[in-house]
Amino acid sequence: MGSSTRRRFLPFIVLFSGLSLASLGSKSSWKESYFAYPYRSLRTVVVEDDSIRDIATDWNLRQAFANLSYTSAHPESCQQRKLERFCRRARCQRATAREASPHDAQLPFNATITKQHDNTNNCKTLWFAGMSLGPNSQCTSEGGGYQREYAMALASARLHAADSLQPVLILTTRGTTTTNNPNISALDYPIARWAQSQGAIVVTVNELSFQSVANQLAGDLVGKEHTIGPYLRMDIPRIIRQYDLFRRANNICPRHVLYTDSDVLFVNPISVEDMHAVKRLVANEAHVTYGLEFGIQGDVPINTGVFVVDVPRWEQEWNSLLAFATSNGPFVAFDQGWLNAYYKNHPEKVVMLPRRWNWKTYWDLEEQEESSWTDIKIVHFHGPKPGLGLWDMATCASPTNWTFREDFVKAYMPHLQAGVCCNQGKVAHYAQQIYNLLEPVTRDVCLSV
Known about the structure:
The chain has 449 residues and is of the alpha/beta class. The protein has 14 helices and 14 strands.
């Protein structure tokens, strides 16, 4: 590992999720603490090198990921445990991963995308994710928190989409305890340094271009981070211009971008051709595509946790979107409620994203062969998340043994029933295996500032 290699033994430390990142120590001690999950054995960790290796070139990790099996992912407890009473009202969500969707024959793709966007260009698509570095972002001992979730998303993307996606992480400290501290910026956080080490472009946003409107939309919600974090994606065109992102790196696709929430996993390879295929959906009058929420058989896009947008045409629509928000907000579910309300009046401007790009942990495949699972591109932790029901779903835990906060139980009950009773926890357990696999290479994101 070079002359700078040195071995250090670090004690196992569990940090409580209620602590702020700023309270965990000075910059000189930021490497001395990290989170570990309760489903991993407690052990002393040997850190071989202070540098962070590029996950995209870790062939052993890539092979270990490839060896994971969806069909054998669920534990025996899900087959043996009797949960008849719990499952009585389960609404099973079952479908194929490759549903019928528009292709070139149905859409005049060339009317909106020139030859420079063709898949022969082998360009990389900008993949955006964003977060406020407030309390909800902080790592938890169960593997939750936006920062940990994003690290898992980025690690899985580097393994499966290094040639097709250029990650861009948007960070803000607005509304957090460090907002007025001139000595700490978003770029000082370990998540920023780690993301940069994995090839991500990290940009900071102090306030939105429409901050006064966002303040109005957030209303009386507790936590000022809600006045910016949920709306970062709406400012992507401005951020692209400000940081010249279409020209920031070599060979960036110049028109369309992908956005995801932080709580996703890239579970199978995504090629340049895959990305161009999904962009072909955004044609005619449509300028954005996103997918279904709970129901797997719906025909109206609802969930914006994964979406692809035509940036120039989104900018053309922006004044209309903003005027609509000013006149009709606030909305349920932040930006998602805003977009859904707007596109309800303009259905021709949005198109359905195929299910395989926003697969939920409680959906079940009609075909249980491994080949069917490989069609799925992105799994989204909509509803139950790490530390908030997902691991209970993964083990088909009885409701009497659930370990997450009671106030989430009612909201997540339909998702848990579908995931346990219909899918036998297979998708959730597969995600748990990924977390176990990637935890050693992502733990640095949870160190203190």
